Amino acid sequence: MYNKSQTCTGECVSGPATPPRSEGDSGSGGDVTGSLLIATVVGAIGGVIVVSLSAVVVVRARKSSSHERNLHLEMRNVVLEYLLTELQRRYGAGRHDARLARVDFASCDIPKSQITRIRKIGAGESGEVWLGRLEGRLLRRPHEQQQQQQPAFQMRQQQFVAVKFNERNTEAAMQVRMLLEAHLLHVLPHEHIIQLVAVVTSEIPVLVCTEYMAGGDLKTFLRACRPTLPSPRLVFTAADLSRMGCQTAAALSFLEQQKVIHRDVAARNVFVNEDASTVKLGDFGAARDVVNSTQACYIATNAAVGPGSPGSSSHRLPIAWMAPEAILESRYSHASDVWSFGVFLWEVSSFARTPFGALGPREIVDEIAGGRHLQQPAQCSDAMFSLMLECWQIDPSRRPSFSQLYTRLTEGARVSESESLDQSEWLGNRHSHNPDGSPEMQNPSRATTFLTLAAREDEEEGTAL
User: Fold this and answer.
1) Nearest-angstrom CA–CA distance, 162 and 176
2) For the chain, what are the domain ranges?
3) Would you say 332 and 261 are in contact if contact means Cβ atoms under 8 Å apart?
4) pLDDT at position 33, please?
């Protein structure tokens, strides 16, 4: 008989029966839970690390950007202080000169964001030049407000400008050099001088924006208009060429009145509009203001080229355009600019042939020292060449002033109004003359050499002794 109170053995199980576990199932639930826990912890730690690293990168980037801005600001202050010191040295410390008072560029200093660079259009030792687009409003310069009686600000939706800067040399001295050129343009408003439009001094390198002349430099423009070309860009009369000389003389006459020496008058530094109706003098990087000089001259102490030590100059010099006193003594004046202007007239009359052909700088110096000079271009009138000879007088005091040159060129332009250029004789040369006007005696082989060298137009012009 079954006893309900009988004690169960170890095999007796009260409650519902549970299937036995297999050996492989033991602890699997704990492993999954542990893996999920580990993954969560690792993910959280990774997230914290990523966030921390991102925060570090952002902080460092901000610090770097702030540091860079501070460096730009510090350099800008150094450049502007250097500029002011240099101008005070030139004009005299403590003087309230009108030119010195207008050094702040407040009327044309703009944010860099207003300028878009489009393409490179030139380069040289002082930096690069780009075609740029300027947008936004500009502050009118004081003389514009007075002359035109217009509001201080003018709106310009778009304006093309030439943007000059130097990224390779960001030292204060080079940046000041850029601003010194801008300062001269700022205080020399003239219809035949390239005008300053704006500057950017908030960042280094500084940007100098001038008006853009669509025809480019006159040297390149004239070469594209040579009568011997199958399809010249434009056809010129003698009056057209005289007008170019007349307009350039007007600019140089203004500089003469303002006591500014250009020091680099050449066709490459004169710029022309698209239809060649207007030319303007530019590139004032070498120009010097002698308003406070008692001798009205400038002596380049860092670029002396004496007769006993040719080659002492550390930079390239345009020897073929330089007056003898500039080559031998590094002495520059309005009279040395007149000599260079004579070479410029020769360039215009010859459609930008290279002065002295392929002669080297030492040979050019020998030519000039020996009283020889460039020959008369084929289609150059006797009156025009006579004017060149006056510009090439060895004695600077015997050279004409720019006001005299302007008057005579204006008269010459009227006389030559109806003259045309004969293509068949353009490559020829007339007899050369000595400074006193007498024909130069030269052997036929030398004349042939000059004709041969004249055809080599692509020789480098900025030669150094």
Assistant:
1) 19
2) 100-211, 218-454
3) yes
4) 74
d(CA 366, CA 373) in angstroms, rounded, equals 10
Instruction: Match 């030669």 to its residue by tokens.
Output: 463
Q: What is the pLDDT of residue 73?
A: 60
Residue type for position 453: L
H-type alpha helices, 92-171: 98-101, 142-148
Give per-residue pLDDT as tens, 39-74.
787 777 877 787 777 777 766 666 555 555 555 566
Taking 70 as the pLDDT cut, the residues of the chain under it are 1-32, 58-106, 137-157, 292-296, 301-315, 415-465
Alpha-helix runs per DSSP H in 330-381: 334-349, 361-369
Predicted TM-score (pTM) of the model is 0.71
Please report the beta strands in 99-152, taking only residues with DSSP state E, as ranges in sequence order: 115-124, 127-139
Which token pair is 28? 């699997």
Structure tokens at 270: 């004169």
Length of the chain measured in residues:
465
Instruction: Specify whether the CB–CB gap between 68 and 76 falls below 8 A.
Output: no
Note whether 309 and 299 are within 8 A (CB): no
Q: Which CATH class is domain 100-211?
A: alpha beta
Q: Residue 17 and residue 19: Cα distance in Å, rounded?
A: 7
What pLDDT score was predicted for residue 177?
86
Structure tokens at 96: 């309230």
Query: How are beta strands 207-211 and 196-200 bridged, if at all?
Result: antiparallel
**Alpha-carbon span 77 to 88, nearest angstrom:** 16
What is the C-alpha separation between 228 and 99, in angstroms, rounded? Answer: 47
- Given a contact cutoff of 8 angstroms between Cβ atoms, the answer to whether 338 and 399 are in contact is yes
Query: DSSP characters for 176-199?
Result: HHHHHHHHHHHH---TTBPPEEEE
Asked if residue 165 lies in contact with residue 205, where contact means CB atoms within 8 angstroms, the answer is yes
Domain 100-211 shares a fold with domain 218-454: no
Known catalytic residue: 264? Answer: yes
Count of Cβ atoms closer than 10 Å to residue 324 Cβ: 17
Quote the CATH superfamily of domain 218-454: Transferase(Phosphotransferase) domain 1 (1.10.510.10)
The residue annotated as part of the active site, out of 31, 109, 217, 264, is 264
